[in-house]
Amino acid sequence: GAAIARWFNSIGVTAFVLRYRLVEYGHPAPLRDVLRAVRLVRSRAAEFVINPAHIGVLGASAGGHLAACAGTIFDAPEGRTGAELDKVSARPDFIILLYAVISMKEPNVHLGSRRALLGANPSPELLDHLSPELQVTKDSSPAFIVHTEEDRSVSDFNSIDFYKALHQARVPVE
After folding, report:
1. Residue 60: beta bridge partners?
2. In 3-state terms, what secondary structure has residue 34?
3. What is the DSSP letter of 57?
4. What's the pLDDT tens digit per position in 64-95?
5. Pairwise CA distance, residues 27 & 24, whole Å
6. Sign of the dihedral through C-alpha 140, 107, 145, 173
7. Which of 30, 74, 99, 129 would staple 91 via disulfide (CB 3.0–4.6 Å)?
8. Is the dihedral angle over the CA atoms 35, 31, 17, 160 positive or is it negative?
9. CB atoms within 10 A of CB 21
10. Are 127 and 79 in contact (CB under 8 A)?
């Protein structure tokens, strides 16, 4: 993420890199990390000289799953820590997804990502909850999605299905 952040910085965009908790913690640690990051940046917008209504999340591959979750389940109870900062909106104003893992369900699931986040035997309810294409509402974050069918690791149907869900909910998506 550092190279992407430097590129954004070079064109005048303030960018931060989130190092979120991974396999050793599992869900909900990554979700808490990204939502806390959005809240923290928004709460300190004046200090960073940024517009608190222009805060987005970019993620690629498994990080794209996290960004898509941030854009759909930003109000989920497990995304809160009990801190005063929880009162600040965690909803990203936009999300950018690059060849993102989206679904935790067959047939489009990336099994390695699902296993790393949820372990070997996640409940069907958790699979639904963490499949952002199933969590889209009219309040979901607008999205810019990049994917190619030449991706041999993450099925492009992840992005296609997420696009369709956002489009159907009338959420701006490209």
Report:
1. 98
2. helix
3. E
4. 999 999 999 999 999 999 999 999 999 999 99
5. 10
6. negative
7. 74
8. negative
9. 14
10. no
DSSP secondary structure, 64-133, as one string: HHHHHHHHH-TT-GGG--SSGGGGS----SEEEEES----SSTTT--HHHHHHHH-SS--HHHHHHT-GG
The pair of structure tokens assigned to 150 is 């030449």
Burial of 65 (0-12, 13-18, 19+ CB in 10 A): buried
Place of tokens 């994917």: 147
Mapped onto helix, strand or coil, the DSSP state of residue 5 is helix
Tokens standing for residue 114: 């699902």
Tokens representing 120 are 């070997």
Give pLDDT < 70 ranges for the chain. none
| C-alpha–C-alpha distance, residues 36 and 43, integer Å | 10
C-alpha to C-alpha distance for 138 and 168, rounded to whole angstroms? 9
Could you tell me the CA-to-CA distances from 92 to 88, 117, 140 in Å, in that order? 11, 21, 9
Which residue type is seen at 124?
A: P
Distances (CA, A) of 125 to 39, 104, 131: 27, 11, 10
